[in-house]
Every structure is written in C-alpha cells, then in structure tokens.
User: Which sequence fits this backbone?
C-alpha cells in the first residue's frame, strides 16, 4: 500500500506548492477523523488563534465617538448624517471621553491621545479629525500612501519592532498595504515596470522561504534567474542551526546579482538572522553597493530585540511588516512597506538610460509633471492601482486607524507586558511539540517559534543511525510522512521542501492550536517515525 501511495505521490503531488497540497492533506485527515475517535489538528495554517483585545476595544469606542460626532453635525430621520468637522474636534473628543469614561476602550483612547500629543507632538484637532474621519471611512485615503498621523505613529512603532529602539538616522517612508503579500506583489510589479529588474536578471533567495517568493520569480512575466542561499549550517553533532554559510552569501558580491529576498525570521524555521550572517550581507553590499534587498519582517516581533536589515542597511533594504500575526489580525490585512528616504531604488531610477526614462515619463505623466522626481515608494502606490486609479489607492482609512491603535498599544506598553506574554505563549507550544516528539531543544534567542521545521532525516539518524535514515530515503517519498501523519492521526502539517527546505522536513505551525494539541502532534510525529522503524526492522527480518 505504501509503495502504491508513493507512486501516486510522485506522479500527482510533488509539483504542488504546500499551500495547494494542503487540501489533499486535510482530506486525508478528515477521513481519519470521520472513522475514528480522533480530532482534526490543523497545524498547517499560519493563522493565529489569539487576538490583541485592547486596541480593538479602543477601535469600537472610537467608532462610537465618530458616530456621535457625525450625528451632532446634522442628521436626517431617514438615517443620514453629516461628517466629522475638524475645528474644535479635540475639545469635543476630550469631553466625550469624560462622559464615557467607563466604556470599554475609552481609557486606552485617552492614554493613546495623550501619548500622541506629548511624545509625537501631534496637533490635537488634526489627530482626532484623522481618527474620526478615518474610522468613519467617508473619504478616499489622503494622501493615498498613508494617512499623516498613521505614518507618524507606525514609524515610531517600527523603531521598536524592526530597529530594537535604535532606528537609522534617515527617515523611513511608509506605504500602508493590504497585508504583506500585497506589499510583496507591489514590489515585484514596480521593479519590473521601472526596469530595475528585467526578465532573466539574477536574484537571490535566502531559503527556506515563504513559497510565493519561490513561485513569483518563475512566472513568465518575471522569469528571473534565481540563486538559492540555503540555511544549511549544522552543529558538529548534525543538528540544523538554520543559519547561513558566509561563503554562500559572499557569492552576492558579484554585481550580476541585482536583488536579495529575505524572510527574517525565516519561514518555516522561524530563526532570526544571526550577526555573522548580517555582517556577511553588509560585506556584500560594500562590494555590490547597488544590491536591492527586500526583507519580509512579519515574524520579527516574536523575537526580543529584533533588528531588521532595514535598520542595519537602510540605503539598500525595503521592509514588509504585517500586524497580522502578532496582533491576531490576519483578516484586517494591516501591513506597511517601509523604505528609507535616501535609498538605492531611487538611485537606480535616476541612473536609468534615457530611453528607459522616456518610457517612464510616458507611463507616469498623468500623475505629475516631474516624473523623474517621483519616488520609488510613490510608484509602488501608483502601480498598486494600475496608475490610472492612483487617486483611489491606499489601505482603507478604517483599517489604517485600527493599525494606528495597535501600534499605539505597543508604544503605551513600556514594560513590554504583551510582548513577553506573546513570546512565552508561543514558546510553550514549541516545548510541548518537541518534548513530546522526544527531544529537549535548548533555548535559542534567535528563534521566533511561530513555526517549527522538523527534518525527519536528522531525527531518524538520531534515533536509529544512518542506516535507518538511508532506508527511509530510499523506500519512501518525503510526502509520505505528511500523508501518513494525516491519515493515521488526523494531524495536518506541511512539507518543508515546498519552502525549499530539506527534502524530508515538515513545517508545523505553532500559532493556531492550543498547547495540549501540540503535545499530541509531537507524539504523533514520533509515532510515524517509529512506524518507519518497525518496517525497517521487518525488512531486515528482525
């Protein structure tokens, strides 16, 4: 039966991305759940099973103020009201908070308001008007890239989230986007349309990596030549560190490499780049100063003192950060793309040959009379709406207000109470998984723990030696472990090689199940390995 399953897996499924494959895996798990006393445990999803509650309460309280403000302007009995009025709105807001001080979320609003006035030097009327008008959603986003105080607040948050409290001297410009995946897509599009990356150009991916970074460069409209820089460093006893060999990174000193794509902390291993790797990338940039870098920093807030490449290499890097995971807000689609005001992207635009500049003058002439002065980040905004609809671009204003409030929640939390509890929550799940798999893993400050990547070959060798690992590799398809786990136990994980990880690795999400569920999954994974061991012993006649 196993051999037949292997043939089918090889023929039908090996070419699918793990996210497309997931439906087949869930179907196999569903059959087990239907026919036995098992519960479907879907550890293939990265969607968290928590929410940050205080910023949401503040959002709904602010919505009540905004509605009172609109109704206080003028109303019609048919359910029509006016819109917020800027003049004197802060005074009315202060009075409203005094009148509603027991309402959930109002204390948060009061502290956020006071913080913004004192620490961010916000104009009171301008700030409250942005909040009230934004949450009402009665205007297109103005400016379309990001609202004024949303940018100020979020930039301050990124000083903490991406720069360990020590941001680069140059100011970061932000573009509020619909999830980090949107930021990624806009990045690929604007690079193509502005001749910064052309078909066949050489780029590099630090792998394992979120699969769209693998798949998008292969599309016919991009068709880039891709170098994979693998996190294949091992400890002396044969365990993955999920870090990179500086010699491999040094290959990027060749100026033929135009762009580097990084997910940091990685997905799925969930490890922050160590300082050796960061220093190696810095050395690369010294030799290849026009190297463009996109760093996907979504999981950085699960590491203490996280520092993005945009903090260390602000001229060369742009960052995509999402509020989705840390705040349990995947449905809100709250993300920002950050680029230093002085950056390599604008430098390369200015250095384009005249024929390319002429083509871009034609492309963007409807937006500005000064196309050469149109910054890269503003071209991203324009390309996000196919240029002609630039005036309607930008993340919706209610979404931007929720993002501001989430950012303010962190800025108000001077003792990092939420941060520490979030790290402990996800770490407890990691320990439950690994302890019950049968291995005690040492603490590692570089580990984010949002996912765990388990290379079954490493642990097969640890359990029964190299001969056993070779037997599994020779007799089974790597996908067999994923499907056997689903069909035998009802547990769903994804294949790690779909992320360009080790062939026999599996990705377990630690976000969307409870600690007790990871106790079960750890035991189930060990069970599958022991099944392989029993079959190996049987093949030897023992």
Assistant:
């Amino acid at each position: 039966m196993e051999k037949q399953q292997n043939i089918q897996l090889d023929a039908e499924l090996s070419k699918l991305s793990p996210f497309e494959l997931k439906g087949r895996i869930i179907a196999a798990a569903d059959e087990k759940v239907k026919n036995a006393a098992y519960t479907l445990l879907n550890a293939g999803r990265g969607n968290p099973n928590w929410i940050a509650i205080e910023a949401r309460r503040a959002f709904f309280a602010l919505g009540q103020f905004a509605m009172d403000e609109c109704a206080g302007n003028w109303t019609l009995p048919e359910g029509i009201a006016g819109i917020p009025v800027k003049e004197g709105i802060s005074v009315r807001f202060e009075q409203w908070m005094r009148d509603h001080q027991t309402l959930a979320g109002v204390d948060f609003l009061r502290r956020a308001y006071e913080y913004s006035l004192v620490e961010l030097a916000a104009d009171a009327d301008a700030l409250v008007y942005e909040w009230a008008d934004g949450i009402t959603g009665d205007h297109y986003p103005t400016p379309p890239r990001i609202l004024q105080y949303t940018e100020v607040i979020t930039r301050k948050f990124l000083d903490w989230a991406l720069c360990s409290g020590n941001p680069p001297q140059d100011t970061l410009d932000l573009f509020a986007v619909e999830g980090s995946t949107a930021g990624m897509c806009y990045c690929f599009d604007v690079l193509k349309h502005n001749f910064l990356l052309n078909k066949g150009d050489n780029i590099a991916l630090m792998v394992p990596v979120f699969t769209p970074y693998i798949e998008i460069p292969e599309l016919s409209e991009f068709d880039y030549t891709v170098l994979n820089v693998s996190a294949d460093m091992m400890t002396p006893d044969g365990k993955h560190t999920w870090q990179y060999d500086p010699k491999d990174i040094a290959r990027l000193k060749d100026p033929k490499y135009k762009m580097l794509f990084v997910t940091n902390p990685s997905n799925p291993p969930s490890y922050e780049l160590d300082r050796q790797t960061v220093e190696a990338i810095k050395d690369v940039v010294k030799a290849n100063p026009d190297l463009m870098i996109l760093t996907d920093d979504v999981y950085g807030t699960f590491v203490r003192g996280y520092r993005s490449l945009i903090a260390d290499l602000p001229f060369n890097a742009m960052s995509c950060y999402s509020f989705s995971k840390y705040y349990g807000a995947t449905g809100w689609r709250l993300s920002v793309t950050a680029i230093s005001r002085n950056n390599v992207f604008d430098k390369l635009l200015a250095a384009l040959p005249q024929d390319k500049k002429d083509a871009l003058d034609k492309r963007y002439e409807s937006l500005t009379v000064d196309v050469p002065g149109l910054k890269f980040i503003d071209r991203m905004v324009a390309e996000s709406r196919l240029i002609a609809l630039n005036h309607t671009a930008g993340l919706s204003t209610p979404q931007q207000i929720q993002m501001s409030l989430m950012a303010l929640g962190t800025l108000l939390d001077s003792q990092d109470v939420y941060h520490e509890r979030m790290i402990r929550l996800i770490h407890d799940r990691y320990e439950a998984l690994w302890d019950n798999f049968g291995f005690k893993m040492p603490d590692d400050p570089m580990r984010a723990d949002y996912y765990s990547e388990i290379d079954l070959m490493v642990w097969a060798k640890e359990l029964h030696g190299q001969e056993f690992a070779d037997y599994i590799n020779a007799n089974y398809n790597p996908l067999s472990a994923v499907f056997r786990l689903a069909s035998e136990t009802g547990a769903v994980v994804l294949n790690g090689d779909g992320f360009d990880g080790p062939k026999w690795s599996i990705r377990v999400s630690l976000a969307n199940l409870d600690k007790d569920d990871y106790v079960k999954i750890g035991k189930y994974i060990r069970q599958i390995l022991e099944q392989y061991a029993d079959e190996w012993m049987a093949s030897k006649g023992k």
Observations:
- The chain has a mean pLDDT of 94.
- The CA atoms of residues 88 and 125 lie 6 Å apart.
- The two ends are 21 Å apart (CA to CA).
